[in-house]
Amino acid sequence: MIKKTLRTVLLLSLLSYPAVAAADDLHYNNILIGDRASGMGGAYTAVSDDPGGLYFNPAGIAYSTGQSLSASVNAYSVTNRTYKGVFGGQDWKRTSSTLLPNFFGIIQPIGKFKFGFSYAVPDSSQEDQDQQFTRADYGGASETINFNNKNDTTLFGPSIALQLSEKFSIGTSLYAHKRSTEAVLYDTIISRDASQYLLSSAYSESDEWGIRPVVGIMWAPVEKLSLGLTFAKTLVLDSEIIKQSTLSSNAASQAIKTFETYSDKRSYPYQITAGAAFFPTSTLLISCDLSFNSAYDYTLANILNKRDAVINGAIGAEYYLNKNWAVRGGLFTDFSNAPKIVNDTSTQFEHIDFFGSSMTLSHFTKNTSLTFGGNYKFGSGESKVAGGSKGIQDVSADGWILFVSSSYSY
Prior knowledge:
By secondary structure, the chain is mainly β.
């Protein structure tokens, strides 16, 4: 009986492995980009007059000042997730951390045009988990899980903008898109009297290349007010996925092994973002953004992925204390695009909605600036993890980022 139960639990774990180990394409604000934009919660579509605009709205760089302008951001990111009562009533905790240069941008005017080049990392994580459980629900069996997961998404490419009038500009960025993931799961279950055991391992990796065009406009209909609008979509041109797993026990004559490769291409939504920025005084800026990401679905490695439409919002402010110091703050949402979970036997992705805040402090000299800051977000939702004490588990999550940035203009 114990052998049959343990075997069933472990097979379910392997079947649900893609859902647990998948990179986080369930959210669109995993890492905020740029120093000034990050400090304002990402409410930057109607501002975008510095290198951060290459990512948010390339039309905004038409209003950048100086002969040349560059900026770089280095960030340390941590995320935590706690799945309530997953294994015999015990919580499963997952932590990810990464240190990375998450943005670099440069702008150069040539004639009537502004040209730019930028590098951005909108998603990056690295998990290294070791956790042990006593499975009271399965006769006191001991279960040990070792889980490693890496995920990186990188964008890099040129931008161009043209100021058509004092009040209107257009711009576009053409990013190369690269995404790579690697996940390893080891699961060991040993009966209470150590007479029976099950060992499993599962491994997956993926690499994809594509393009992400971004088209934007900027309009100042009246004094002290600017409006921005962008359209963007990622198109995957090439993809390779490898998955393998092994399941063995002292009761089986041989191990069960699988090895599969796929060339399925992941789909991405089209994204429309509208923003407004108000400049009530020469020292105060208030901005807000609304971003719409469309619904879509695709099949990847024999798993159907359905994504709901999502609207996220952000509001931010910037205030100059004097000519050398500025403080910024913002609030933002990061809602999940995963459908609401239902209690059936299908593989489903977790659904967690986040709310976040950000703050930065900048110091300026004649040609340089130095910025320190960070953001924090928290959320809750539901998940399905095979072998849990109930069909659907509650999940709580949070994450924070600290960064330092420098920029130079001349």
